[in-house]
Amino acid sequence: MSDAAPPHREATTTRTGPHPGPSTPSAEGARAPGDGGGPQEVRGLLDSLGPLLLEWLPRQRWFAGKGRPISGFALVSATELLPPSGAGPGLLHLLVRARQDGAGEDCYQLLLGVRDVLPPHLAPALVGRPADGPLRGRAVYEGLTDPRLAALLLERLRMPGRLGPLRFTREPEVVISPDLAPRLLDAEQSNSSAVYGETYILKLFRRVGPGVNPDLELPRALANAGCARVPAPAAWFEAEPPRAGSEPMTLGVLQPYLPGSADGWQLALGALAVGADFTAPARALGQATAEVHLALAEALPTTALDRHRLEALAAAMTHRLDAAAEAVPALRPYRAALCAAFDDIAAPGGAGRTWRAQRIHGDLHLGQALRTPADGRWSLIDFEGEPAVPLAERRRPQPVVRDIAGMLRSFDYAAAVGRAPGTGWADAARAAFCEGYAAAHPDDPREDPRLLRAHETDKAVYEVLYEARHRPDWLPVPMSAIRRLAEGSRAAGGTPV
Ligand SMILES: Nc1ncnc2c1ncn2[C@@H]1O[C@H](COP(=O)(O)OP(=O)(O)O)[C@@H](O)[C@H]1O
Ligand SMILES: O=P(O)(O)O[C@H]1O[C@H](CO)[C@@H](O[C@H]2O[C@H](CO)[C@@H](O)[C@H](O)[C@H]2O)[C@H](O)[C@H]1O
């Protein structure tokens, strides 16, 4: 296939056949809808959906490759969860690789409804009508928006088992009642979630890859360790590995829904709107975070953060900064000053004392903490880590300071978005969070300001890239932190964050 081929055409003809390229799983691993659909039918399916996906996929909030055109698709698997019958909808589960020039490939999970006639309330969910192929002329739409189809997915989790490459598992002691009415969350998300009868929430991962997703792995480990700060997975589903020797892909996790809960972001903005301080909730959140860290360190392996690892950490932070500055030129004037914060931790005695690395949340911010109104108790959710980071990296042990820095940045974000006058509100919330953490954990993050500053800098760099890609209007929020952190770094000896 010529690289000069128009993307539209290429997308319809790329690697759907039985002889995929080296990085593409074999189409023998792909299942076509209907009974025993072979490679011909598989090829026909993606050929006809390709042009529609080319338009639709980049518009989805959860599409990770924003700003880079898609140059081709490859089908990893196609499973018919429900065949269309008469006026009833069908449900097709697809794993599709999208290739982007210069950016490799990402595998996405799609749940597509299929109907001859799309009812008006589902019209906004339309992906399109294929011009040819097995779905020719039918309405193909985002399946989770259709309550009948979302209900079907819960039914699969309720009655576990296998279907083609898909494997549904339920914790043996969990009983899921039938007929829990579904509703799709319309939150700005990296994935998609459906709530069932205010009892369960199913998170459907969108960008998927081989290996257990930490958002299943860590909450399960925490539940087994008796930590009640995290909703325990009740059921989940995976895809069998497309290649021998590779690991299954986690596709979705069902967990108890915390009804009436509000997330820390909403609560912080609410407090800012009425000029209230946030120190009591921040202190409690620090304590909850410490409890989760302690439980993770008990449940899963830890390692010492020795000099060699600190050097590797500093090098990785510098590398991320360079990649971000490549994409966001506004970062470039601050590069040298920001690098100094990373170099600081690699210098002898840079992290004041020896810390340990362990499994952590990985993308902790106020939106990942839910508080239930009845008892004011905080729970943590979404242990997936930073969506842009490769899975293997997200599953590595890291210093707990990374999570702490994430939450400290979040207080700063809230203060900026909630237009706090001056830095007092954020400073007080940040201090209270650290106090709460230190009261419940033997390690006090304030004892090592250089390690904390390096992590806060690294997080702010990540946020600059995140905002540039997803919410350009918000770019000034992390950029003002970048300026402050660079200033602190330039000042002799640096200013503790
Ligand atoms: N157990 C839960 N109980 C109540 N609401 C939840 C629960 N889990 C997630 N949510 C809601 O769903 C939203 C998205 O969940 P999250 O796991 O953060 O998804 P994503 O990774 O796609 O951002 C959260 O912001 C929260 O409002
Ligand atoms: O919740 P996700 O796992 O999708 O995390 C991503 O999106 C977050 C925004 O929703 C982003 O968080 C940034 O914005 C928050 C305010 O909306 C702020 O509280 C965080 O501190 C800030 O990092 C997160 O970085 C990103 O990975």
Automatic annotation (TrEMBL):
Pfam families: Mak_N_cap. It catalyses: D-maltose + ATP = alpha-maltose 1-phosphate + ADP + H(+). Its EC number is 2.7.1.175. Residues 1-12 have a biased composition (Basic and acidic residues). Residues 56-146 form the Maltokinase N-terminal cap domain. Belongs to the aminoglycoside phosphotransferase family. This is Maltokinase. It comes from Streptomyces triculaminicus.
